UniProtKB/TrEMBL annotation, chain A:
It comes from the Bacteria. Keywords: Signal. Residues 16-36 have a biased composition (Low complexity). Residues 37-84 have a biased composition (Pro residues). This is Outer membrane protein beta-barrel domain-containing protein. Residues 16-93 are annotated as: Disordered. It comes from Nannocystis exedens. Residues 1-21 form the signal peptide.
Automatic annotation (TrEMBL), chain B:
This is Uncharacterized protein. It comes from the Bacteria. PROSITE patterns: PROKAR_LIPOPROTEIN (PS51257).
Length: 300, 515
């Protein structure tokens, strides 16, 4: 009789199931940071049974079963089941800070006509890289941070079918960034920054002889952009609320200001030259609307 | 009420702004007219941008000024400096045959580029310019190349008052000959008015040389009747140049001599007043002067008014008494083509030479009428004469292959200066007793102290494109072949690398500041 009671208890026990699906309905990592009433811990803190492994084939018994009076029957028919293994779990980590590594491309639309001396159109394609970080302000959805980036663009043009002009701009940029998590995976952000702009330009002319002049200039640069970033939210990641890394892309637009360059390339000369003077070709202001597309990897 | 701009709209507008760029301001070409040398600097005309660029050396720097000339409907056909080098002239014509109702205009800019230009309406796209030696007038005409106009009046001219704003558009009253050249034969002294007195009335006479005729006009009063003189197309008389002898005690009436391109006769037009006193007319005669006449000059001995001509075929000077048309010949026994007079010991000396010849011949004219057997002196130029430039009254510079000869007449000295490459004596300037030389294609500026005849050379950093001397700042300016503008400024008093300096890119000055 006691054996019968034990068999009934095993038969009435609930089957092992994947409770992950039920957890998907839980709040996201960002939303979870919002203070909740003192309710019992959500289901996410409940132990999560691992899926059952495939049964392992077992050879059939070769000896007669023991007498029923001395051995209770198995809880169910079929081969014996190995002991269940528990799936590894991680505790949720609410997002307090984020660090991004990214690369971007974009275009600056220069409105200064002088730019056309160096490019046959007004748009300058640039590429660069960024490292940035931010942290949550209070318990809200706003993140404040900053970072540094580097971008480079270059162009070449022929003036009046007689002169070659090229320009290369390299600029490190430090910026402050304010981001609002509209929904985890979708941020709206703005950043303002500035830094030095290192410009190298040259002018060359050629007929029966070839002459060229070269100039390097360091000017000030300020940049303000706003945009959106899309990234994988934690709930889409294998570790879900505990995920430490994600990735995404962002699109932004704004305005980049650079102070004017007084263009006066110094002519290339041979050894021991006559004192050689160049001329002031005018001012160049490489500034205008900018748009940017970037991809990033985020650690949080 | 306008709806507020949304970020998406702003982004779209930014993209649109990048895509819809205005025209490239740096399209087109950059082909400037050759530089014009003024008293103070060099002046380039940029036809594509309708600008005149003044480049003025000042100390160690170069000042660049720009002035507008014409507009997008016009183009600058040519530019030139006035004879006093204080002004720059530029003629604008319609940019294309499709431009209508566009008048041709002559601009006169101050040489320093400051101030507004004077603009003259000249009514035709003239291709040639004659400047009066007295610096008062310019005459625009169609030269031998004619015009690209569908139909043009070959004898149309414009007389421009360079001291004021007046312009006279005139058609010559000739006999059908096409105008070839314009001369101011009465103006002998540079910068001075030398009116020709005819019958007690002063006239400023210009000679217009046509195929076989000469038209004379009083520029002080273009309304006066023009005097057209046919010189005989039947005998092949084609005017080449003129020479006006003012009247004096030896020959009272002014006489205009006309040299023919071929033949052995010189036309002599004796200018006399009209009977009614309204103007002047010409009495024509042809003077036989040997087989040919390649150059001429007048010379008054104490008692005889001579016309001296060079008979290139015979290698002789021909002296003709213009009163009687009688004369004599002085054989030179060497090639003769050109002559000039120089002052010597209170008298005159004729110097005769020929391109390709090997001698300079000098003949003292003092008492020539009484010394019929006088023989010329000869100065040998071993390697032949390519070019001859008169430096001053006592010296000439002869270019001959890779040699230059400095000829000093008082000492009868010929000094050869050898070089690795040929020198062009036209690329030279005489500053005091220092001769400066800069020949296109070379990389040297050379100086010759004419007192010691010691030459020195200074190496430039680039080959010479053209050699200019600016009397205002007293500087030699060497231009180099570079559309951006490239020149070397040399102090003529101390031509050395330590005192010279180079400027580059001045023709592009301010190029980035255009709107």
């Amino acid at each position: 009789m006691p054996s019968l009671v034990l068999a009934l208890v095993f038969a009435a026990a609930p089957a092992a199931t994947d409770r992950g699906a039920a957890e998907a309905e839980a709040p996201t990592a960002v939303e979870a940071w919002t203070p909740a009433p003192a309710d019992p811990p959500p289901a996410a803190v409940a132990p999560t049974p691992a899926p059952m492994p495939m049964p392992v084939p077992v050879a059939a018994p070769t000896q007669p079963p023991p007498p029923a009076v001395t051995q209770p029957p198995p809880p169910s028919a079929g081969p014996p089941t190995p002991p269940p293994t528990r799936k590894r779990t991680w505790p949720d980590r609410p997002i307090r800070w984020r660090v991004d590594l990214g690369g971007d491309i974009g275009t600056t639309v220069n409105f200064d006509p002088a730019w056309r001396a160096f490019d046959d159109n007004r748009s300058a394609f640039h590429a660069g890289g960024t490292i940035r970080g931010d942290f949550r302000l209070g318990d809200g959805r706003v993140f404040l941070g900053g970072g540094a980036s580097f971008r480079r663009f270059a162009s070449y043009n022929t003036l009046y079918q007689a002169f070659g002009a090229d320009i290369t701009v390299r600029e490190p940029l430090a910026f402050l960034r304010l981001a609002v998590v509209v929904r985890e995976g979708f941020d709206v952000f703005a950043h303002v920054g500035g830094g030095p702009s290192f410009t190298a330009l040259s002018l060359s002319s050629w007929t029966s002889t070839y002459n060229s002049g070269y100039q390097q200039a360091v000017t000030g640069m300020a940049d303000a952009q706003a945009g959106v970033s899309l990234y994988l939210p934690k709930k889409w990641l294998p570790r879900r609320g505990a995920a430490r890394a994600t990735a995404g892309f962002e699109l932004s637009a704004g305005y980049t200001f650079r102070s004017k360059i007084k263009v006066r390339p110094e002519p290339d000369v041979y050894d021991d030259p006559l004192p050689t003077h160049s001329s002031d070709l005018g001012d160049l202001a490489v500034r205008g609307f900018v748009w940017r597309f970037g991809v990033f990897v985020r650690f949080q | 009420m306008h709806p507020p701009l949304r970020p998406r709209s702003v982004f779209a507008l930014a993209l649109l702004a990048g895509a819809c760029a205005p025209p490239d301001p740096y399209e087109g070409t950059f082909e400037l007219l050759p530089p014009v040398t003024t008293r103070d600097g060099l002046v380039w005309v940029d036809p594509a941008r309708d600008e005149v660029v003044f480049v003025l050396p000042e100390g160690e720097s170069v000042t660049t000024r720009r002035a507008a000339v014409g507009d997008e409907h016009t183009v600058v056909a040519w530019s030139a400096a006035s004879r006093d080098q204080k002004s720059v002239l530029a003629l604008t014509i319609p940019a294309s045959a499709k431009e209508e109702d566009i008048d041709e205009q002559l601009y006169r800019f101050p040489a320093d580029g400051e101030g507004e230009p004077v603009v003259y309406d000249v009514q035709a796209p003239f291709t040639a310019l004659a400047l009066s030696p007295d610096h008062r007038r310019a005459i625009l005409y169609f030269g031998g190349d004619g015009s690209s106009e569908q139909l043009h009046n070959a004898n149309q001219i414009a007389i421009v008052d360079l001291a004021g704003k007046g312009v006279e558009n005139v058609t010559l009253n000739g006999f059908g000959g096409t105008l070839k050249a314009v001369e101011f034969p009465g103006q002998i002294v540079e910068g001075e008015e030398t009116p020709i007195v005819i019958g007690g009335v002063a006239h400023d006479i210009a000679a217009f040389l046509a195929d076989s005729e000469v038209v004379l006009m009083d520029l002080d009063d273009p309304a006066l009747d023009q005097v057209a003189v046919p010189l005989g197309s039947d005998i092949g008389f084609s005017p080449r140049t003129t020479l006006l002898r003012p009247g004096n005690d030896l020959f009272v009436d002014p006489a205009l001599f006309v040299l023919s391109a071929q033949g052995g006769e010189v036309g002599m037009l004796t200018l006399v007043a009209e009977g009614d006193g309204s103007g002047f007319t010409a009495q024509i005669s042809l003077i036989p002067v040997g087989q040919t006449s390649s150059d001429f000059i007048f010379y008054d001995s104490p008692s005889v008014p001579y016309l001296i001509t060079v008979d290139a075929a015979a290698g002789a000077l021909v002296f003709t008494d213009i009163r009687t048309q009688g004369g004599f010949t002085v054989p030179l026994a060497s090639a003769a083509e050109s002559l000039f007079l120089r002052d010597v010991d209170g008298g005159k000396q004729a110097v005769v030479w020929a391109r390709g010849g090997t001698q300079l011949s000098t003949l003292d004219l003092d008492g020539i009428e009484d010394s019929l057997g006088r023989k010329p002196k000869r100065l040998k130029i071993e390697t032949g004469i390519d070019e001859l430039v008169v430096l001053d009254n006592d010296r000439v510079l002869v270019g001959s292959g890779n040699k230059l000869y400095v000829v000093a007449f008082p000492e009868e000295q010929v000094t050869p200066l050898s070089s690795q490459v040929a020198y062009d004596p036209r690329g030279s300037a005489l500053v005091g007793d220092r001769l400066l030389l800069g020949t296109a294609g070379q990389q040297w500026v050379s100086t010759v102290d004419l007192q010691t005849l010691n030459p020195e050379s200074m190496l430039l950093d680039h080959a010479i494109g053209a050699f200019h001397y600016l009397p205002g700042p007293d500087r030699i300016v060497i231009t180099h072949d570079d559309p951006a503008g490239h020149l070397t400024i040399v102090d003529p008093a101390d031509p050395s690398r330590s005192t010279s300096h180079v400027h580059w890119g001045f023709l592009l000055q301010g190029v980035l500041d255009q709107e």
